[in-house]
Structure formats: structure tokens, C-alpha cells
Amino acid sequence: MTAIVASSPTRNLPDPMLPRPFRVQRVRKETQDTFTLELEPATGEGDYPFAAGQFNMLYIYGVGEVPISISGDPTKPHRLVHTTRAVGVVTNAMRQLKRGDMLAVRGPFGNSWPVVEAQGKDVIIVAGGLGLAPVRPALYHVLAYREKYNNVVLLYGTRTPLDILYRREIEGWRSRFDVDVHVTVDRAMHPWRGNVGVVTRIIPKAPFDHLNAVAMICGPEVMIHFTVLELEKRGLAPGSIFISMERNMKCAIGFCGHCQWGPNFICKDGPIFSYEEIKPFFGRRGL
Amino acid sequence: MSSPPLRAGSRVILLPAGLQQLIDTLRRQDHQVIGPTVRDGAIVYAEVEELADLPAGWTDEQDAGSYHLRRREDDAYFGYSLAAQSWKRWLHPPRRRLWRAERAAADGDFTLVAEQPDPPRLAFLGVRACELRAIAIQNTVFTRGPFTDPLYKTIHDATFIIAVNCGYAGGTCFCSSMGTGPRVGAGFDLALTELLDAQRHAFLVEVGSPRGARVLQELPYTPAEPADLAAAEAIVARTAESMVRSLDTNGIKEFLYANADHPRWDDVAARCLACGNCTSVCPTCFCTTVEDTTDLSGRVAERWQRWDSCFTLDFSYIHGGSVRGTSRERYRQWLTHKLAAWIDQFDSSGCVGCGRCITWCPVGIDLTEEVRAMYANDSTGAQIATLNIV
Amino acid sequence: MSTPSIESILARHPFFQEIAPAELGAIIEHARLISFEPGRLIFHQGEPAAQLFLITEGKVSLEVFAPQRGPILLMTLGPEDVLGWSWLFPPYRWHLDARALEPTQAIAIDGARLRERCEANHELGYQLMRHSVGVIEQRLQAALLQLVDLYGK
Asked: What is the rounded CA–CA span in Å between residue B35 and residue B87?
């Protein structure tokens, strides 16, 4: 399965390991430990064209570099948007950035969600936790070309109502008449009146035709595993199920060897894979 | 001097004095000539200037976990099988700076300063067939994918390669079964076969490129006779026949993919120290990591690249843990990548049969034996290896 | 427009598959449609588990009440979900609270009568036990996954 790969600005540069300076235009706190950065090139204007699903390597001066999925709108490339969680040294340093601060960017890398292959079909997006961020660009694309798709379903699961990412935006999507949005949490306190339970419980009744649908799943591997099981129970073929994978990355250009998963380099053969192509490797311990 | 101009495929005879002149010519053309030398009880590649720097009269005895130098009865320059390390450390440096960033004030803007590398032009003297193939394999990794490593390409393309056909099969060699030797294949500028007997000491030289032809044209060569060609053929044939080890690569990719849970992996894991020697000496292993450093003032930050090994625990670290947490999983990753996944990634095996991983493993793990045992479904331990490093 | 009858709903529901029409007819005598407005407690932890509920519309949360923290929502159920299996096992008391979050409709079946029929007809008993275990297994698996805290750091 060949997903679309946008022409990568980095591919055309003489040195793909040298980043470009960018500036923080806006910082937004999303949840207790998750935040969004909006970036623009430090020198002059510049769009940042990318395909939904691709990622950048973001560098903080003197601290290090991490791979972060682009979570903005691919049809509006004038702002580069990244949502991430502060878990390590680099992302914690990133959380301290303010408007006007400088960081450096390499990318975009990787392949993309099959938004073209999904045309004419039902689209079912299943996201868990922070996984909504890397798949949001695909939803943006689908909504921008809404007439090209049949049913559009978003299933989003997270820990508690406080951990719901892009809450206001989700409420906006839900209020549209052409998108089916289901949000569920693992546990909640009163007065939550939404769903409580694992996101996979919503799949048996989700409105899609298993013979004409494409599923895009993004979240923890355990969640992907159970989601695939439920989708296959509905009769969805493995070739119509797409997942996003993560591994340790140092270079993002297929040279450092860290991101290998079986024969695949997550950075250049992925991060998006059809379940059919990676079925023999998925869930194998220690691979 | 012969009159017909030399070109790829031409074969001539050069005497040792001519070989010295070859070294001199290359040095005059600003090449740093790297060749085999004897150091610390082993044959290692280092800069050479004269024939006297070469390991004339030396050979090696290699076995699983064991390496010894021995004196030969003759003065062959290339009578050993394989040096300890490979040419990898010149083409793919163990440490290199990727770029610098400078900033005037703490928390202020920074500028990125690209490297302007000016690597020395190299000439490799004495590249074995397996090593030649390994160079081609790494070249594929770094220049034939969606991205190119510009420094690797610069160094590689400028390197003048003088290959040498093996007159002796090392104890751990298995290039024959890997289809990578002992006769040198494509990718050399000049290839030598050492012809040494009671009558003479000479080299059959084969031209492999226009650049090789140009250099050789200036040297005192004489035409190669049919007897010379036959002698060289016989040497290579004898080397191939005397090879002790072999690896059956028939269907090995599918076999290793399908046997991720073979009990033999547990057996190897009980022996493997995850020391990473194999990845260090392997001529095709290419993994690296990056290091970010700042100076004390914080005004200059640097990003360095250095060799890494998939045998380290944090190689596969993500989200608070390592995906390959046990040495079993890491050994399996290394071998499966080398012999199977590499084929899907780069259209060839990652192994050239040089045997260095067998020689330099402190506990003598032999991948040819491991594969054989897996095919035979045998999961009992191999004999305990001897620790016999010189 | 005719609303589906209790009989047609039960006949189609996976929980009552493979049950002979005669038995189903007898069960229907002990079934009734019931509605709950949002916020209404359907049952209380500790109360006698008198009924089995088949949700047809709306949303119900299974909860536990913690002093000083209020209700903690553990799982929500919706249309076609079975609510309650405590009617089948001694001491026949509810272990959790159940509360309607939205306007909810359900078919309530008298638990004690159902138990009597199961005693009298072991084939029916086996079927209902089997389906109940199936429901419990699904809920358990889901609950375990919720415990894993998948989305945590």
C-alpha cells in the first residue's frame, strides 16, 4: 500500500541532518500535561506543506531533538502546529517555550494517512489519548473535502474528561450533521454525562459499511490491538485498516537504525502502515 | 611501458617496486593511503607510506573467539586473511560533528552553523572481496535511499580502492557461501593478486575503473601472460575450496521471519554478553546515535553523531522502557536484520561472510553455527567457546 | 407508526437468542417497558436485584459513590446493552449504582420469576447463564483495559 508522501522540503536540502530555525507564534495548554505549539519559519514567510500523518524532528537548543507528529491542517500550511505531551527532557523544555522563542525543525518525514484511498468510502477514525493529535490532520483533510467521502466517524477515547484533547473543536465537529463523533473516557466523576468505557465498545455499532470503509487508528499499541480486533469482527479487511506506529528515532532519515521494526524503518516506511502489511510483526514482543 | 591504453578489464604485471610507486603516486595526488600494518599483535588498517609498513611475511589464525598472528614461510605482503577492523571507520567515521549552533545570550535566538567538511582523500590498499562488497552495501544504505548522507558520499566517491584477491581462506571466513568472494567483484579501481613463488614476487593487476587506468598508466607494468592469469585463477580457486565455514542462505529470510520464537534464541542469549563487539567489527553495521552538547557558557551547542549498537539496552527505548529489553531480543534483532530484514530493506544480504563477528566475539558465538542449529531444530548449547584473544 | 413490541425486541436481542418461543412468551408476561428521566437512579448498591434490564434507548452509568468525592462513573451502557446480572446469583443484591444520564427506556424483566423459570427449565437456565457469562466476560475485559490506564505516561 502506498500512502501519499508530500514532497519533503528536507529531502531537497543538501544536508538532511541540519535543521531550520523556527519561531514559536503561539503556545496553548491543552490538558494538564499536553500543549500545542504553533510555529513559523524564523526567516521570512514560508508555508510548511505536509501530508496528514507526517512528523517533524523538533530541536531545542542545547537539549536535544524529538520526533513529533504534525497536528495541524494540511490544507492550511501557513502555520506549523504540533501538539505534544511533556514526558522527557526535551518535551519538558519545549513546554517552557514562549511566543517569540526559537527552536529548530527538520522535516516533514514519513508517509501519510490514506486520505485519497479513502475517497468514496466510509472513514472511521479511532484515536486514543494523545493519538488524536497525529490523526487530526487526516480529519481536517476529510472535512475539507467532505463531499468525497461517505460516512465519517470519529471515535475518541481518553483517560478522564480532563484529558480530552481539543475539546472545543470536538464539540464543533459533533455539532456538524455530517460527522459522527463518539467520545469516551476510562473513568469520570459526576457531572460527566458522556460515555465511560473503552473506545472499542463503540465499534460494534459504529455506522460504517465494512465492505467500503477505511479505518485510521492512532494511540497506544494495546489500544490499537483491541481496536483492530473489533474492526475485524465487523468484517473490515486488514488492508483497509491503517495504524500509526512509534519507535525510538534519532535521525528520521533511515540512517541511524533505531526505529526499525522488523524490516520496516518507522521513519521512512511508516509511521503509517496498513494492518495487512505489518500483521506478522504487530504485537510481537521484543521485535 | 606497453602502448595500448589501459582500461577497465585490462590486466598487467607489477613488481613490488611498482607497488611502491603506486603508493607514492597516490600520495602525490593527495590521497592518504590506508593499508594493513602489524600493531598490538594484530593486523590493523592504518596509514602506510612504504612497502615496509605492510605485514610482509605475516598471516593470521582466526577461529571463534580467537585471533593469533603467525609468521609465514615467505614474505607475502597480503598473506593474511582479514584485518581486525574493517574500512568502515574511514568511510563512516565513528564520531563526527553534524553541526553547531551559536547564541549570544541565554534563552536568546541561535544560529545554526553547517559543517564544511574537508575530509582527506583516501586510498585503501588491500581491500578483500568481502570488504569490497561491504563497502557497496553501506554505500547503498547511505546513498540509495530517499535521503543521502552527503559526507559519506563525498568520502566514498573520492576513495581510491585497491582490492586484493585472497590467497588464503581465514578460519572464520565464509564469503564463498555468501556469494561475495573470494574473487573480488565490482567496485575497485585496481585489483591485485599476489603471485609469489620461487621464481618471482609480482602482482597481477586488474584495472577496474578509468581512474584506476589513469594511475596505473604511469607505473612500470609489463603485460600479463596467460600463465599469469592461470596462476591467479588457481590461487582464488584454492582459496574458495579451502574455506571451512559456510552459511546456507537458501530461504533464510522467510525462515528467520518465521522463527522469531525458535528456542535457539534462548540458547544464544545464555551466551551472548550483548557487548556489541560484533557490531563494531562488522563492515556493514551502520547504526549511529546523536549527542547534543553545550559548552559551559551555553553559547555554543553541538550535535555529534557516533556509532551505536543495537545491543545496547536503550537502543530501542521509548515511552519509559526498551522494546528489546532482553539480550535474547537484541541478538535476535541483530541476526534477523543482518540476514533477513536487510534483504527487504536493501535488496541484498547484510552479511558478506567476512567472519569478523565470529573471531571477535568474546564467547565465540558463530552465526553460521547458530543458523545451522536453527535449521536442524537443535536448541542445545554449542560447545563452550574458548577465550583466546591475543 | 407502531413501536416495536416487547416481544419483537426480545426475540431479536442476542441475550434471548436460541430460547424457544414458548419460553419467550412466558418470559414476556413478566416484562414491562419502563422509562427513566435523566439523573434518576435506576438501582442502588445493596438493594435487592429484582430485575434484569434491557436498555432500548438512552444512556445509563454504572457508578460507585465515594464519600467526599461523589459518584465515580465506571462504565456507561446504551441501547441493546444488558443491565444487571446480580438477579442470577445469590445474594441477589446490586453491587453498584445505576443512574440514567439521558432519557432512558428499558425493558425490565422480573428477576425472581425468571429464576423460577430457570429452575423449572434447565435448558432456559443454561441459555440465560451462558449469555450472562458472555456479557460479564465482555464487561470484565473492558474494565481490565480501563484499569491499564492506557493513555497514561
From this structure: 9
Please count the residue pairs, one from chain A and one from chain C, whose beta carbons lie less than 8 angstroms apart: 71
Q: In chain B, which stretches have pLDDT less than 70? A: 1-3, 378-390
Using the beta-carbon criterion (under 8 Å), do A87 and B301 form an inter-chain contact?
A: no
Q: Considering the entire predicted model, what is its pTM?
A: 0.92
Residue C40 at interface with chain A, using a CB cutoff of 8 Å: no
Among chain A, residues having any CB pair with chain C shorter than 8 Å are 33, 85, 87, 128-130, 157-159, 163, 184, 186-190, 192-198, 200-201, 205, 219-220, 222-223, 226
Least confident among A56-60, B130-134, C133-137: C133-137
Query: Any residues with CB less than 8 A from the CB of C116 and at least 6 apart, and which?
Result: none
User: In the listed set A62, A77, A109, which residue is the last one of a domain according to the structure?
Assistant: A109
Residues A100 and A15 in one domain: yes
A255 lies in the same domain as A132: yes
Single-letter residue type at A40: E
| Whether A222 and A86 share a structural domain | no
ipTM above 0.90, yes or no: yes
Q: What is the mean pLDDT of chain C?
A: 89
**Is residue B142 less than 8 Å (CB to CB) from chain A?**
yes
pLDDT tens for A180-239 read: 999 999 999 988 999 999 999 999 999 999 999 999 999 999 999 999 999 999 999 999
List alpha helices for chain B, DSSP H: 16-28, 88-91, 129-143, 150-158, 175-178, 210-217, 226-241, 252-258, 264-271, 277-281, 327-336, 342-346, 356-360, 367-375
Q: Band of the pLDDT at C2, cuts 50, 70, 90?
A: very low
Chain B positions touching A262 (Cβ under 8 A) are: 257, 341
Clarify whether residues A101 and A130 are in a common domain.
Answer: no
